[in-house]
Amino acid sequence: MREQKRQWWKESVAYQIYPRSFQDSNGDGIGDLRGITERLDYLQYLGIDLLWLSPVYDSPNDDNGYDIRDYHGILDEYGTMEDMDELLEEARKRGIRLVMDLVANHTSDEHAWFIESRSSKDSPKRDWYIWRPGNEGAEPTNWECAFGGSAWEYDENSGEYYLHCFSKKQPDLNWENEEVRQALYSMIHWWMDKGIAGFRVDAITYIKKNPAFPQLAAADGRRYAPVEQASLNQEGILDFLRELKQEALEPRGAITVAEAPGVPLEQIRDFVDETDGVFTMLFQFSHVDLDIKPGGKAEFTDWDMKKFKEALSLWQRESNRHGWMGLFLENHDHVRSVSKFGDDGQYRDLSAKMLAAYYFLMRGTPFIYQGQEIGMTNCPFDSIDEYRDISSLNLYREETAKGRPASEILDYLGKRSRDQGRTPMQWNADREAGFTSGTPWIKVNPNYTEINVENNMRDEHSVLQFYRKLIALRRQYSALVYGFYEELCEDSADIGMYRRIHEGETFIVVCNFTADRVEWAGLTETLAGGERVLSNYETEAQGSLRPYEAAVYRWAAAT
Q1: Angle at Cα 538 formed by Cα 532 and Cα 544, nearest 5°?
Q2: Is the C-alpha dihedral spanning 437, 439, 444, 446 positive or negative?
Q3: Among 115, 106, 252, 243, which Cα is nearest to 190's?
Q4: Dist. CA 450–CA 64, nearest whole Å
Q5: Where is each Glycosyl hydrolase family 13 catalytic domain found (predicted)?
Q6: Residues 312, 330: Cα–Cα separation, whole Å
Q7: 174, 128 contact by CB (below 8 A)
Q8: Coil, strand, or helix at residue 388?
């Protein structure tokens, strides 16, 4: 293993806020910047020192802020730029740095750039987006956007189509145009001048398109083929990313965590090598997408905890040599981890703590998603009318129109919809979980009377207090930050175990992923001589692991 430099962001603990659902300060049912500022003391209490804020830019909100109308403005429902400045200042006073979302693959169709681009084929900004004539009366290609339907939208005024890998209100920028790239770099410098620490880089592996714009092979009976086949991590993308790093990110010392779907393990060095990589950290998604059937449409596939462990460990082992991972189990695009990987019923507390210990002490910077630290669960949505996510609504409409039963699609959304991670933060047992004095923009999970911050803060054995202990432990021992990662018990689908080693100090994290007591012949021998420094059980069991048990053991360096 190559020894990596000590960096503040490696030693940090990050927290993601989805502003729309975090805290409403004015009673309109939508979270806002002042609400976040009001809760900074809570984040400080938890132990957070890096805050990732999902988009608060001015936006029509077709995709909840990821369709940006003005990179230099704040959406009215979130507040003002003065509110943003106040948040930055108050966070700084508490030792909390702020990371913004960098959405650079696309803008809103209401952005001034696109309005000018679509105004005429002769517009100076026509080439800032990707326009193509139709193909024999149809779309230029048979590409399907990530949210369903054609990836091309017809423009009546000019008689051409524009490309959108996501919503039709999110036209893709043309990164082949140098003026586009320079405009984005200028925007990055503007936000760095504001005092942010860097960016979570959204959908960045979509920015390069196959220059041939080919027709794609579609699955049987389907009109379209996934746009990802021609727009995800395409050859030549690294030229763009290296320029982005050299001209905008590196000169400002910006930290970056890249949402980089489509990047194979073999490319980790290109993306996050400490010397040569284009980003600071990388999010990979193989462990959270195990249940999706490859090539299917809203279809599940079988998986087990062994595959979950393998998906994480592959990247962990490679990061021993190159790069740094952003560690996560939840975010605004995924469901609640205790509902997916644990038991959100009888063993909710134990399994939420077990999952926390397992991912949090791996090699990388851990990210906590709002509500994860109190064990929030998936919400029982009763009908499609309660969903708000555009991709969920599009999926329901398109698949039911094809004849699939509504109950089948609702079952899928209950387990996969992005809205499962977007229900309001559960602060207390008061009306609407203390999130708002008004009517929330999306349903509050009815279990908020039991699962909330206030209850967690009162209970010294709560999920929240376990996260605080994890954070304190990681801060105390550098081996849990910089240590070499080695998987143990890798053939087991029941036990997750790994070792971290640094400067002679050793830690072992051992977890039972099941609701049963698990015996393992080598357990006692493997843990012999270790000091049990953290567990989700008060007492220690010998030679076996109780339901969803997690324990951390330490061996001090020899003197």
Answers
A1: 65
A2: positive
A3: 252
A4: 28
A5: 16-422
A6: 14
A7: yes
A8: coil
Single-letter amino acid, residue 465? Q
Which among 289, 356, 282 is positioned nearest to 325, based on CA atoms? 282
Q: DSSP letters of 307-364?
A: HHHHHHHHHHHHHTTS--BEE-S--TTS--HHHHTS-SSTTHHHHHHHHHHHHHTSSS
The DSSP bridge partners found for residue 129 are 173
Identify the residue whose tokens are 């939420």: 352
E strand or H helix that includes residue 426: none
List of long-range contacts for 540-547, beta carbons under 8 Å, 24+ apart = 543/519, 544/517, 544/518, 544/519, 544/520, 545/495, 545/510, 545/511, 545/512, 545/517, 545/518, 545/520, 546/512, 546/517, 547/347, 547/350, 547/512, 547/514, 547/515, 547/516, 547/517
Q: pTM (2 decimals)?
A: 0.95
Residue 426 has pLDDT above 60, yes or no: yes
pLDDT tens digits for 149-197? 999 999 999 999 999 999 999 999 999 999 999 999 999 999 999 999 9
What lies within 8 Å, CB to CB, of 326 at 6+ separation is 14, 257, 281, 282, 283, 364, 365, 367
Active site residues: 202, 259
Other Cβ atoms less than 10 A from the Cβ of 407: the count is 9
Nearest to 498 by CA among 364, 368, 340, 347: 364
Amino acid occupying residue 187: M
Distance CA 14, CA 17 (A): 10
Q: Calculate ∠ Cα 398-403-407, nearest 5°.
A: 85
Q: At a CB cut-off of 8 Å and minimum separation 6, what does 279 contact?
A: 201, 241, 245, 256, 257, 258, 260, 271, 272
In the numeric block, the tokens 């990061």 are attached to: 319
Tokens of 230: 């021609």
- pLDDT tens, 83-114? 999 999 999 999 999 999 999 999 999 999 99
97: left (phi over 0), alpha (psi -120 to 50) or beta: beta
The answer to whether 57 and 75 have CB atoms below 8 angstroms apart is yes
CA angle 318, 203, 238 (to 5 degrees): 60
Residue 231's CB: how many other CB atoms inside 10 A? 27
Are 148 and 395 within 8 A, CB to CB? yes
CB 425 within 8 A of CB 18: no
Structure tokens at 256: 């970056």
E strands, 456-517, are: 484-488, 495-502, 505-512
The residue with tokens 């609640």 is 336
Amino acid occupying residue 270: D
- C-alpha distances out from residue 302 to 210, 220, 307, Å: 32, 22, 10
